[in-house]
Amino acid sequence: MLLDKPTAPLKLQHPHAMLAQVRRCAMESGMGVIIVLHDLNSARRHAGDVPVLLA
Questions:
Q1: pTM of the predicted model, to two decimals?
Q2: In 1-55, alpha helices (H)
């Protein structure tokens, strides 16, 4: 699954719930997930690996 800034339109409390749900779905299905985020704290909290691209 590829998600590009999926939490951008969500209010402050909802991104964590949505990312937790994506993680649960990925774990249950065995599916890989790539998510583009600008919030590194959310990425660290919900991801197994966090590669960072510097411009």
A1: 0.70
A2: 14-29, 40-46
